[in-house]
Amino acid sequence: MLKYVFLGLFIAVMILVGIISRKKIQNVQDFFLGGRKMGPWLSAFAYGTTYFSAVIFIGYAGKTGWGFGISATFIGIGNALLGSLLAWLVLAKRTRRMTHELGAATMPEFFEKRYNSKAMKIATALIIFVFLVPYSASVYQGLAYLFETTFGVPFIYCMAAMALLTGIYLLLGGYVATALNDFIQGIIMLIGVAFMIFFILSNPAVGGLSGGLQKLSRIPGDGPGLVSLFSAQPMNLLGLIVLTSLGTWGLPQMVHKFYAIKDDAAVKRGTVISTVFALIIAGGAYFVGAFGRLFLNNTMPVGANGKANADMVIPMVLEKAMPDALIGIIVILVLSASMSTLSSLVLVSSSAISLDLVKGTLFPNMKKENVMLLMRALCALFVICSFMVAVTPNSILALMSFSWGTVAGAFLAPFLYGLYWKGTTKIGAWAGFISGFAVSLAGAVIYKMDAGTAPNIGAVAMVVSLVVVPVVSLLTARMPQKKTSKVSDNVAGQKLELEA
After folding, report:
1. Which is deepest, 241, 335, 441, 480, by most CB within 10 Å?
2. Backbone angles phi, psi at 474, to 5 degrees
3. Could you count the other beta carbons within 10 Å of the beta carbon of residue 184?
4. Tell me, what DSSP letter sits at residue 290?
5. Beta carbons within 10 angstroms of residue 381's beta carbon
6. If DSSP codes are grouped into helix, strand and coil, which group holds residue 38?
């Protein structure tokens, strides 16, 4: 009964926060950015809980831990140092300041004003809405596997319930509700990971850290590689680190957190909080994933289609390792991680169409009340689209890698260079945008969304774009100063500074 009590309390709190937050929503900026008044703790926890979802606990930890062993922990360390610490140090202050100066509330709007290109704004908005759907679907799948194992509820009903819950509390309170819930969910995640590490390591199947390492080393064939800090597949491991760490720099749902933070002092504190949070959550998840083989007798679970399914590893491990009285906390852990990610995805995707495409391009005189109504309707549409993709059998790892690779491959380089280098030209930005997008899309088609190659394709897409943007920018003329000044003229009383 404790599982149901914990679940009921969690859902009640989420909806209550949404109802309370509704009173603070006066306009579109409040709904999307929380009035740009978010403090360090709310911003850091919003960043961390958006970063880590059911994908890391169910899809990535199980599959990478099975394949790489202990060396998979380096992915979590990379997430903390490159995906959190360095991302905050490099992006947070600059993003907050430039989006204020440009008057940009979204990534598509930033591209339009930085590069004086409405076409780039439209293309960005469409890519966000379309290609974040697979990532959202992967989160629903991860949740559904866990709930099906824990509660015995059919897979499809679990996903439908999660989609409904996401829609309810997000439609009520927007980013304010999301940030408050993220803080609550972050605390639950920290407690849950601590319990998960303790009970998995202390379980007789593992026998403590040293005992677990000895048992892994004795697994026929793969044993020595599973306990080595240096993976037998270094390029594949590097691809995962690059995709899951550097990829956050170009994802609109992650960068969005820097738009909303209130001041530079909050950025400094948020940097530390976010890094520690990432180290505990990601490091813990990948570390315990390495011991999955010991609980399952070195036999990969088989799905309903009769094929091996790595996405079922962690749900089965948790069912065996955790006491019934505490499994509810782990369920809430994964649910917390997922709901925060889903709400951010839905919010960013709906704004891309409503704010950037419809009001920003097609109907600039659209009333604020109608924009709010449209944004809420698009939130619901995005949830429905994600649910429809989720019910189609696909590896969680493949869905997430394809989504991150495509979106970050297209946006990372134009965004990063646009923040720091005034020599970045419109043509250079377009070249990086198209090359990263094309590499990811072509790789997905050629390799048929293969989970083994998807992370490497996404990593290559980002690297290609990072190289193409400066090369093409140096070969083309700089943006005319008069066009750049037009952007500045739209920001009353402020001067746009593009120098590093």
Report:
1. 335
2. -70, -30
3. 17
4. T
5. 15
6. strand
For the chain, the structural domain boundaries read 2-477
Of 397, 405, 368, which Cα lies nearest the Cα of 310? 397
Question: Three-state secondary structure along 124-185?
Answer: HHHHHHHHCHHHHHHHHHHHHHHHHHHHCCCHHHHHHHHHHHHHHHHHHHHHHHHHHHHHHH
Among candidate residues 175, 151, 176, the one with its CA nearest the CA of residue 327:
151
The closest alpha carbon to 338, from 81, 91, 158, belongs to 158
Cα angle: 462, vertex 464, 469; to 5 degrees: 100
Please provide the distance, in angstroms rounded to a whole number, between the alpha carbons at the two ends of the chain.
57
State the pLDDT at residue 100: 83
Query: Which DSSP letter does residue 204 get?
Result: T
Q: Is 198 helix (H, G, I), strand (E, B) or coil?
A: helix
Q: Which of 380, 388, 472 lies closest to 424 in space, CA to CA?
A: 472
Among candidates 102, 83, 445, 1, which has minimal Cα distance to 251? 83
Q: Are 408 and 251 in contact (CB under 8 A)?
A: yes
DSSP SS3 for 394: coil
DSSP state letters, 253-281:
HHHHHHHHB--HHHHHHHHHHHHHHHHHH
- Of 278, 349, 265, which is closest to residue 92 (Cα–Cα)? 265
H or E, element range at 209: helix 208-217
Q: Measure the CA–CA gap between 353 and 363, rounded to whole angstroms.
A: 12
Q: What is the pTM of this model?
A: 0.84
DSSP lists the bridge partners of residue 302 as 308
Tokens standing for 350?
């709906």
Within 10 angstroms of residue 423's Cβ, the number of other Cβ atoms is 15
Whether residue 406 contacts residue 461, with contact meaning beta carbons closer than 8 Å, is answered with: yes
- Any residues with CB less than 8 A from the CB of 350 and at least 6 apart, and which? 129, 375, 376, 378, 379, 381, 382
Token pair of 126 as six digits: 């469409």
HSE (side-chain half, CA atoms, 13 Å) at 406: 25
Alpha helix (H) residue ranges in 352-477 = 368-390, 396-420, 426-446, 454-475
The fourth-level CATH superfamily of domain 2-477 is Sodium/glucose cotransporter (1.20.1730.10)
Distance CA 142, CA 136 (A): 10
pLDDT at 494 over 50: no
For the stretch 338-375, pLDDT in tens is 777 777 787 788 888 888 888 888 888 888 778 878 87
Read off the DSSP letter of residue 230.
S
**DSSP H helices in 23-131:** 28-33, 40-51, 54, 61-68, 73-78, 87, 93-102, 107-115, 118-131
